[in-house]
Amino acid sequence: MADTILELMDVTVDFKGFLAVDAVSLSVGRGEVRTIIGPNGAGKSTLIDLITGKTRLKFGKIVFDGADITLRPPHEIAHAYGIGRKFQGPNTFFDMSVFDNLLLALRGSTGVGKSIFYRRTDDARGKIDDILRIIGLEDKKDTLVSALSYGEKQWVEIGMVLAQDAKLVILDEPTTGMTADETYKTGEMIRAMRKDRTIIVSEHDMDFVRQVAETVTVMNQGKILAEGTFEEIRQNPEVIRVYLKE
Amino acid sequence: MKKLSPRLKNIPRRATMNALLLVFILIYPLTTGLYQIDTMAKVIPLMIFALSADLLWGYTGIMSLGQAVPFGIGAYIAAISNNVSAGIPSYMRTYGITEVPAVFRPLTNPYLGTAFAILIPCLLSFMIGRLLLTGKVRGVFVSLITMALSNVLMLAVNNAQRFTGGSNGVNNVSRPSLFGHILSITENYYFVALIAALLFAVCAALTSTKFGKVLGAIRVNENRVAFIGYNVTSYKVFVYVFSSALAAIAGILYARTCGMVSPSLTGLRLSILVIIWIAVGGRGNLTGALFGCLLLNGMERIMAGIIGDAWEFVIGIILLLIVFCVPDGLIGTLLTARPGLKKKEAANG
If one looks up domain A4-242 in CATH, what number appears? Predict the structure, then answer.
């Protein structure tokens, strides 16, 4: 893990006295699949909000791919730095087709002028078709997202993150509300997308974590409790006490 | 083939409605007298005004209750420019003003006057937009703040009597002139209709681009748009300024057609009326805004002669009925109700 792509240094988020993230330092290597687990309220989502610019930190520094992205606005982190994010629960443009959702997320031409004079190229079409294949929705590309099943909506959002062509993809509980079968398919999607990307996944489902994870970070009460391979984590007595006890 | 047919059915609908409207506007002067032509020529600028509000509310989801601000400023600057280009307006003379005030001097040139009538509302909206549309203020609070702006402007116009004629407004505004010739009532009608048609074409083209899709995306899920890399504020400010330019042009044409302006053009009533026209016609498809505007203004002009002020109650009742019974608006419902489609889609999916 010589090449670090994301580094959080002592980051702290203070929600009026409650430290949702408390002096966390974390580094993620290029091309890694990192899973973040932890009980509800451990600070997983807040940590993701922090990296993507949704929440402002009080102390600390975030460095991504050599650039300081601390306190940059979300659209800049997404577009200029290339960090894509999938929210917890499907977060799409429900009254548009699957195709249009992906088209909007496609990297490039996010400025006002560029989008007014945007012409869809064959290249863009090709990319969208590739993504439709990865998320398995080729025959539903003209369907409105609102008409899809819950799991399919989640996949549309994963597709949007793919379309962004991000260097770092962050998936916040991507399998919430999915059947076991859909969860497995999602795991395979993540394995397929990792080729040239770094991926951070926050998750509850331990089978899914086993399927995708290389390194697992365990959070509890805003702090990092443990870090290691899936097997190490599963045997860590501290982790078993606070999280895996059942 | 199955997938194509519902779409083909859909496309002509909106185009047909637009074409019907265009034909109606083109032949209307042939069927009636000068008074009605002039009345209709006052409604057409309001249709441009409705387009401006539909871009903002219907497409982007920003419900401004201050759309009369750019409309009113455009109307006032056009009216004052028209007055001062012919000397000292009579309302200024009553306050002992013997020469054109310095701030109005550029307006003595009619071309500059028109340019300022568009640019100043745009500049104002740019500044308001930069402050208001950053994402910190949202939804109903944007409506409340813009509503306050409407009221502030109306008070200011009422009180700056030396410059604006106060509650009497500015009178003796001439119809537009082209090549030194002041247009007749019928010529002005077609002039206004031509500009409206051009602006409609611009709006239709703009909303059919990827830009239009981004606006729709902002309406349904503003956060997500930012997280796929769009600067939501700059999109909102752009559409806010663009719709202000449309509203200002509408205001200019309205002032020049009516021959006068009064403080009510800047106030809350007009700002709310335009929202009602769009709600009745259907938001987010431009055609609905045009029909809603035409329908309610047509009814208002017919009904006001019969029932007088009771029309205000009627419009309230109409709005309630629409909101509860046809929430997508009249045209919006017609455009989306495609009986054959749902079954076919179900069969396909």
Answer: 3.40.50.300
